[in-house]
Amino acid sequence: MRARTVLAASLILASALASALDAQGTAADYARAEGLHARLDNLVVDVAEQANWIGNTSRFWYRKSVKGGNAFVLVDAATVQKKAAFDHAAVAASLSSGLGHAVTAVTLPFTTLAFSPDERAVEFMVDSTAWNCTVADSKCVRSDAAGRGGRGGRGGRGGGAGGGAGGGAGQRFGGGLYGGELPQITDAPRPSPDRKWEASARNFNVFIRASGAKDWRPLSTDGSPGNYYDPRTFSWSPDSRKLAAYRVRPGFKREVHYVQSSPEDQIQPKDVSRLYNKPGDVLDLDQPVLFDVASHKQTEISSALFPNAYTMSFLAWRADSRALTFEYNQRGHQAYRVVEIDGSSGAARAIVNEETPKNSFFEYSAKLFRQDLGDGAETVWMSERDGWNHLYLYDGATGRVKNQVTKGDWLVRGVDRVDAQARQVWFRASGMYAGKDPYLIHYYRINLDGSGLTTFTEADANHALRFSPDNQYYVDTYSRVDLPPVAELRRTSDQKLVLTLEKADATALLATGWKPPEAFMAKGRDGKTDIYGVIVRPTNFDAKKKYPVIEYIYAGPHDSFVPKVWGVQWGMQGQAEVGFIVSQIDGMGTSNRSKAFHDVAWKNIGDAGFPDRILWHKAAAAKYPYYDVSRVGIYGGSAGGQNSMGGLLFHPEFYKVAVSFAGCHDNRMDKIWWNEQWMGWPIDASYDSSSNVVNAHKLQGKLLLIVGELDENVDPASTLQVANALVKANKSFDFFMFPNGEHAVGRRGALAPYGDRKQWDYFTHQLLGVEPPNRNLGLNP
Fold first, then answer.
1. Rounded mean pLDDT of the chain?
2. Mean predicted confidence (pLDDT) in 171-181
3. Residue 415: which H helix or E strand, with range?
4. 384-404: buried (b, 16+ CB within 10 Å) or exposed (e) per residue?
């Protein structure tokens, strides 16, 4: 009998020990998560950073990772020579002497530099001091050219990617998107191009005088505090005969007020405020007015083509002074026009007239490109009118499309430059290759007539190019989430490989047990569209265990967010280490796919792609038995904060726990530009449908709200109002406010570790059923 008792006790103890060893959310898991950077950082060598071309030469430099730090490399594309940019050990010794403390060859205290014009020296910044080191003898001295190094300067020119010209949405001169203040009366003159005249805003009107004269003469008399001429908008014609300006009727100047509970410089709290327009607010009304200097004739432009502006761009004259143009972004973002005003008559016409269907929108905030050619004879324009983001060539005289430059079931991601002389466009695009990840960026060139498509990138990866100043060469740096970075020098004329610069070596990183995120794809809500995401597993992953799933969400329609390049996803990896699988997905409503894919978000931001996300998770669970979709959590910040709480409200059958950072929980409470871009104007019932505040009574799962009291991006009252709605609905939830915290507090910066622990603890308690380590007693595995 006693033997049986002992045996039973032994079995219970063995079972308890096995359970403890098999547990997740332990102090050991937390220690591994908190030590992630110490274990995994700086283990990948030969990772090349951005190439920097030197002046107008064929030479460039870049910084790369080496064991224990970094090194600078110099390459001559013409001679195919590659070497150290300077003697690192000698420079380190000279700097150590000058700084008064030791630095090593691989831990030089600067990350960027500039070569002198003769390339005999390099300049860089250490802290706030400029230094100059001669290449020949590695002697380093403090330089008088403070601020010149470390900014690329004369020696660091990046050619190619991202440098294209184009029109922007412009700024609302009479107030700005947050509502500005009335411009002060100013005597600061605006000289005419021929320097014979000066213009100034005085007593809310336009005045001119001959250069050097004392007395001012009015060009206008109809300005007033409630309808003033904004001097920031004054635009002289190139021939100095005419002046254009906006007369501005001010809109509503909304203020958001904050209480800083714990200022560093005093005991008592402070109150602060800022101007901040929100959806539905009355905006400034800009009216273009044309003045003839000689006759003092004032011509007010008919507003028929721009009756209800969200923004009006700069008034830009044609080079021959025949006309001026501006871009009109209509309130509600379903019409966008390039308007040309005749410089003599003031007659207005639309060169480009972009109008969308009722169930769609024009995305001016990320997919706007315009470049005029031949002083307005032609215009290259970007549009999604055929269902994909493409380029069109307009006839400037007729305002009609001459031809579509790019076309197909893929999209232009950006224009790097338009070569008017060669009649070519250099651009980035994605989705051109069937069966491949449609988000991966490749680089191309095409003729303006739509012929001669040339591809500069061949690897199945996400690319970033830097062209030489003469466009004879380019450096192609590419990677995927599962492919360490590669940097190659190629020739532009035939795209042939000239030199493999670097191939990153991740051996040491992989030896720790870390594995790259898995790119995973499943069908969306329509059963046809591919939905892409990634799966992140802990470094001690055991396929025999069951792992709760946590989704990191950001469903803002302005971009796509699933990582496409190599790197440790620190936030997701840290959460995974505690005992979870973490996923990130781009559902319908996010950008960089077809227009139909994107339009799901229109007046429907609460959808957040959830029907696609849930199917994606279920597909992953069908493939991987350890992927436990009976225990799903979700977290995110800003728009992701709205989305994470929305998961609990609108899909409680799937999402059980959420951590919401700095959420814009009602789109009427957030900044005007971002929310009206997707939810439209005027305010209608769709804002209620997507509101976490209005739908707070639907809460079933466990919710933690986190917000900074000084959030200047999303009004912190948005989080407090959703908390108020939850209280009124008698719902249980958790709440934490960071004193002095701004928008990213708890996610980035000094307090990120504290925010991470709040998030980890919440999911550990709610999804693992484990009490997190008591930090007040220390954290010991």
1. 92
2. 37
3. strand 411-419
4. bbeebbbbbbbebeebebeee
DSSP letter string over 440-451?
A: --EEEEEETTS-
Is pLDDT above 50 for 156?
no
* Paired tokens of 393: 């060539």
β-strands 59-66, 52-53: how paired? antiparallel
More confident residue, 365 or 7: 365
β-strands 129-134, 140-142 pairing: antiparallel
* Short-list 585, 582, 482, 483, CA closest to 539: 582
Cα separation of 146 and 463, whole Å? 34
Between CA 228 and CA 182 the distance in angstroms is 9
- Please give the Cα distance from 33 to 492 (Å, whole number): 45
What values do phi and psi take at 5, rounded to 5? -65, -45
Report the 10 Å Cβ neighbour count for 578. 27
pLDDT at position 188: 83
Give strand ranges (E) for 650-732.
657-661, 702-708
Q: Please name the helix (run of DSSP H) or strand (run of DSSP E) that holds residue 141, with its range, or none.
A: strand 140-142
Please check whether residue 106 is in contact with residue 66, taking contact to mean a CB–CB distance below 8 angstroms. yes
| Structure-token match 């939905």, residue found | 531
Which position has the higher pLDDT, 175 or 551?
551
pLDDT digits (tens, 9 = 90+) for 256-284: 999 999 999 999 999 999 999 999 999 99
Instruction: Characterize 560-574 residue by residue with b for buried, 16 or more Cβ atoms within 10 angstroms of its Cβ, and e for exposed.
Output: bbbbbbbebbebbbb
Query: Among residues 691, 721, 723, which one has the least CA distance to residue 705?
Result: 723
pLDDT of residue 187: 57
Helix axes 752-763 and 570-577, enclosed angle (nearest 10): 40
pLDDT digits (tens, 9 = 90+) for 473-494: 999 999 999 999 999 999 999 9
Please state, in angstroms and rounded to a whole number, the distance separating the CA atoms of residues 541 and 520: 18
Give the pLDDT score at 775: 87
**Residue 682 to residue 680: CA distance in whole angstroms:** 6
Asked if the model's pLDDT at residue 178 lies above 80, the reply is no
682 upstream amide cis, omega within 30 of 0: yes
Where do we find the tokens 């101007």?
A: 275
Type of residue found at 472 = Q
pLDDT in the model for residue 22: 63
Q: Cβ of 332: how many Cβ atoms within 10 Å?
A: 17
| Cα angle value 186/190/193 (rounded, 5°) | 175
- Burial (0-12, 13-18, 19+ Cβ within 10 Å), 184: exposed
Return the bridge partners of 362, or none: none
* DSSP secondary structure code for residue 768 in this structure: I
Q: What is the pLDDT of residues 523-544, one digit of tens each?
A: 999 999 999 999 999 999 999 9
Q: What is the pTM of this model?
A: 0.92
Residue 41: DSSP 8-state: T
At 57, list the tokens. Answer: 């030469």
Beta strands in 449-527 (DSSP E): 454-455, 462-467, 473-480, 483-491, 497-503, 518-523
Spatial CA neighbour of 378 closest among 402, 354, 348: 402
- CA–CA dist 544, 532 (Å, integer): 26
Of the candidates 43, 30, 110, the one whose C-alpha atom is nearest the C-alpha of residue 72 is 110
List CB contacts of 49: < 8 A, sequence separation 6 or more. 62, 63, 64
Confidence class for position 701, pLDDT limits 50, 70, 90: very high
